[in-house]
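From: lab user (bench 3)
To: helpdesk
Subject: output format question, protein + phosphoenolpyruvate

Hello, I'm new to running complex predictions and I'm not sure whether the block I got back is the full result or only part of it. Here's what I submitted:
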Amino acid sequence: MDKLNNSIDRSWIDQCNKPFIISGPCSAENEQQILETANRLNPSYVQVFRAGIWKPRTKPNNFEGVGQKGLEWLRKVKKSTGFMVATEIANAEHVKLAISFGIDILWIGARSTASPFTIQEIADALEGENNKIILVKNPIHPDIELWTGALERLLGKGIKKLGVIHRGFYTYKNYKYRNQPNWSLLLNFRSLIPRIPIICDPSHICGNKEGILDIAKKAYHFQYEGLMVESHCDPDHAWSDAQQQITPENLLEMLKELTYIKKCDQKSKRYLNLDSFRILIDELDENIIALLAERMKISKKLGTLKKSSDIAIFQPNRWKDIMKKSLNLGKSLGISEEFLEGIFQLLHQESIKIQNQIR
Ligand code: PEP
Ligand code: MN
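Helpdesk reply: Thanks, we reran it on our side. This is the complete output you should expect:
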């Protein structure tokens, strides 16, 4: 990891004396949409215009991007606005085409980062393109090794202008976010590669417009280098990710509300302060509440089954067994027995109450 950390070329982001903002639609749809969105973005705040040309979709039969013709539209944006332009690439063919159209920044999507064969193919295709900026999104699942492995594969082909995009992680059940931020993983990732520039993508974390500002504030608190936010000239009619896209004007309002502290600012070096711990605790508390809700839902189903099978609600042996197993696990994790016993008493009481209500 030291080699990776020491080899990263940060010049592309260090020369930017403010947060590095990437914005533009989830997908390029037509030339007019691309040009209008780009023209409405404020160049005093935004450095890079983004648009997906090839869209990796989880399910078939969704809009999968306009393909090569979108690169022409991005070239026009670059020429007419002066923005740098960025798009997602997912194979060697995409790399060749994007480079031939002068795309400045190529990003690797979350689904691609999860696949070492795909990453190797992209890295091979990039060999010799030492001037391109490559941003690697976190893999969809929280695997730091896959993420750093992707960076190592790119570095192995001489690509040094690297950065990463934090877009959150898939969880089986989503209560609050489309993709859970997992700030604690990000802090661990950064302690492994402190020099890597990190851009936060609140749009794909939230999956809605409402949460974007809060996530962006947290990213600024942790002194990320910038943001990637999806914007669209007509968000409600976007062909992909309509729920999470905002207008360029809403983006500007949001950016004005944020206070940016540069990472190299000496006074703010201690980013793991009180607020940082509170962000980590809040995320864990949200997870605990989501798990409790899930547990109570199953308890309710169990209550219905017990009723129809005429089984008593309270089963002393099962209860003893749960308590014993839980206290053992807690002990191995260093949790006080008294505390855990109290929590499980409460859980059990609540379960019994819910099941009694069904009777
Ligand atoms: C995107 O940026 O539009 C995208 C597809 O993102 P992700 O790879 O994070 O899902
Ligand atoms: Mn999107």
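A quick orientation on your result: The beta strands are 20-24, 48-50, 84-88, 105-108, 133-137, 162-166, 198-200, 226-230. Let us know if anything else is unclear.
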